[in-house]
Write a structure and sequence with these properties.
Order of helices and strands: HEEEEEEHHEEEEEEEEEEEEEEE
Radius of gyration: 47 Å
Number of helices: 3
Structural class: alpha+beta
Strand content: 35-45%
Distance between the termini: 80 Å
Number of strands: 21
Length: about 375
């Protein structure tokens, strides 16, 4: 088996050929790169991407804070019995509309009726005693005029008549008092309104501290808002307040009507009240609701939601900027606030008048040339 070895002359020829080939390849690459640079195109020869552009506009924005508030009726009555006893009848049901003075419940009045009857009988007996005292006084007056009885006898008859009259007046007052007390065994509505929950049942024994039900007069409510002490210095009377639902829709507009001078020691909050009109009965007493306190207004830019992308928790938007007479897309970070309709409120990142790209952003990279549609 033979091995073939190249001579020195042959090795030098191969090396020169390899060097020349590498130099030629490098020259071709440099020529291509210089050609691209001369034309101003991207390495890939990218063309302008058609996009839709909207100018960031400035709108009037409200500086607001939402708090959890409690609605309380300004005309809500808690009914408690004024007498003790057993409930014998419940005429109203929860949710009923009752008129003022309507009987809602009855507490067993048997004992009180017996007391009234006894007082009325005593009054009737005293009325008979009064008539007798009047007859005796008239008789004594006639005998005294005839000189049959003394002045002392006449005075005694007059004193007996006066005592009978006073006793009758006392019994009459007692009868009226017991009759008024008898009315308390009927629980009546203090005004026209809607009956609340009725926790008691027929047969229950109630006292003067037992809650029977509530009657809410339709109409105005008050929102009880607890504002942290850190913002209490900004609170002012007549400051705008909005009641909003879970989706941010405004249910009612109001203003601060009461500002507490004291701080709640437990929660370190300040109580604020705002009167709420409830003409359509969409709100309920003791309902938890969102109250939006409007601290003030300012001018600021907004951008469409579709133009904003979120990467790693950071918001970005593409803005078309002029570069050497052409529009180029540049990606800018944003700090956004709340949504207003279909727009984001921009707190930082762009200014009014910037050309925001709102379509075709999925095909864009920073520095890509763009062309406005339309």
């Amino acid at each position: 088996m033979r091995q073939k070895f190249s001579t020195p002359a042959e090795g030098n020829g191969l090396d020169r050929a390899l060097v020349l080939g590498c130099a030629l390849a490098a020259a071709l690459v440099l020529t291509a790169c210089s050609g691209s640079s001369a034309t101003g195109e991207s390495p890939q020869g990218a063309r302008s991407i058609p996009v839709k552009i909207e100018v960031a506009r400035s709108v009037s924005l409200s500086d607001t804070t939402d708090y959890v508030a409690t609605l309380k009726s300004r005309d809500s009555a808690i009914l408690m019995p004024q007498v003790e006893g057993q409930i014998t009848e419940i005429r109203a049901r929860s949710g009923d509309h009752v008129s003022a003075g309507a009987i809602m419940m009855q507490i067993d009045p048997t004992k009180q009726q017996a007391t009234v009857t006894s007082q009325e009988n005593a009054k009737a007996a005293q009325l008979a005693n009064l008539k007798l005292a009047q007859q005796q006084y008239q008789r004594a007056s006639g005998l005294y005029a005839a000189g049959v009885v003394s002045k002392q006898d006449l005075d005694q008859a007059k004193a007996a008549l006066d005592a009978a009259q006073a006793q009758l007046q006392s019994l009459d007052a007692q009868v009226r008092e017991q009759q008024v007390q008898l009315h308390y065994y009927n629980v009546v509505a203090p005004w026209a309104g809607i009956v609340g929950d009725i926790p008691v049942r027929v047969g229950d024994r109630v006292t003067t501290t037992t809650m029977l039900t509530t009657v809410d007069k339709p109409g105005s409510l008050e929102a009880y808002i607890y504002v942290p002490i850190e913002r209490s210095s900004q609170l002012k009377a007549e400051m705008p307040v909005q009641i909003v639902d879970g989706t941010g829709n405004v249910l009612a507009d109001s203003r601060i009507s009461f500002l507490s001078p004291q701080v709640d020691n437990t929660t370190q909050t300040v109580l604020v009240k705002a009167r709420i009109a409830n003409n359509e009965d969409r709100l309920r007493n003791l309902q938890f609701i969102r109250a939006r306190v409007i601290w003030g207004t300012r001018q600021g830019p907004v951008v469409p939601v579709l133009a904003v992308s979120r990467i790693g928790g950071q918001y970005f938007v593409f803005v078309a900027e002029d570069q050497n007479g052409k529009l180029v897309a540049h990606q800018k970070p944003l700090r956004v606030g709340e949504m207003v309709g279909n727009d984001y409120v921009v707190l930082e990142g762009i200014k009014p008048g910037d050309k925001v790209i709102v379509s075709g952003t999925q095909f864009l990279v920073d520095g890509a040339p763009v062309m406005p549609q339309g």
